[in-house]
Amino acid sequence: MATSTSMGMSSMTGMSMPSATSSTSSSMSGMMGMDSMMMVFFSATNTPLYSTAWMPNGTGQYAGACIFLIVLSLLFRGLMAVRCNFTLLWTRWTRHNETPMLHREEDEIYLKHGGRRPWRINEAATRAILDTTLAAVSYLLMLAVMTMNVGYFLSILGGTFLGSFTVGGWTGATAH
Length: 176
What we know:
Blueprint: H1 2-6, H2 9-12, H3 20-27, H4 59-84, H5 86-97, H6 106-112, H7 121-145, H8 150-167
Helix pairs in contact: 4-7, 4-8
């Protein structure tokens, strides 16, 4: 705008001032703007998944991406089942790996009566890793849905159905 400062105000009335969006969009020419994003479901076999490097080039690669999303959804439901039963699974695993002299029945008594067990670093670290993995998988599924591709969306729904069908009984009443 160096040229406009030397002109008088009367000569600027006929000029259109650049808006913030036009300067922003010109500086981010490589990025996709809001005006080019599809806000409706569409069906295309060349929709990138997670990055432009993962863009199917045909129906076979698109089917592979859909199968990947089905498996990722199955993994998500499996992780949910493990997370819902984590304390019980951890107690059984530690009992199996301990020597009989070190085994204590206190953990199972705490679980049966709804009490809390003492905090242990190995158990807390494993639970934190499980929760972080669960969050990462769920965010990847969310990003796939946000592409608004019908095939990706239906693949995730299909994988969720299969996961709930196979391991849904293990998630208990806390996660539906």
